[in-house]
Amino acid sequence: MKVVVFAGFSGAGKTTLLEAVIALLKAQGQRVSVLKHAHHRFDIDQPGKDSWRHRQAGAHEVLVASDQRLALIHEYETRHEPDVHDLLARLRPVDWVLVEGFKTVRLPKVEVWRAAEPGQDGRAVLYADDPRVLAVATVDASRLPQPPHRPVLDLNDPARIVHWLTEQAARFEYRRPQEMQ
Fold first, then answer.
1. Which of 56, 69, 70, 122 could form a disulfide with 65 if both were Cys (CB 3.0 to 4.6 A apart)?
2. With 90 as the cut, is the pLDDT of residue 179 above it?
3. Which domain range does residue 48 map to?
4. How far apart are the C-alpha atoms of 20 and 33, rounded to whole Å?
């Protein structure tokens, strides 16, 4: 299984890019899963629905399943940042896992970077301090605050990004942390 993190700051275009990358990989016959980092509280339940009511009553986990999908809701006892490797272990084997977020994880990344809008503070880059950023996807490379010294991909050309990913597939083969040492 190949794992690639699409990292960048909010508003850079990660989700839009992933939508296109998923569709393009699937069109090639690849099986794709997504692991998405969410900030703080989020809910896939609707208040009043049975699964929501079960959680509100104190259930540690609620598994909702139908003939079309499955969702597992797990309540943490105490707040903590989830470990990406534990989450990857929960997924079934696929060709690609696209990870959105998890900027600091020690996995190969494509940084999605977009310049700040007029009047906003400049946006930092991850590639300056993270050797795991293997490429930068942006709409205007001339606006990058410093040369990336790695491939720059056109954020508006997801087909080219998928081509680059498949060319570089060996670099994205997932190894558990104990295998990386």
1. 70
2. no
3. 40-80
4. 13
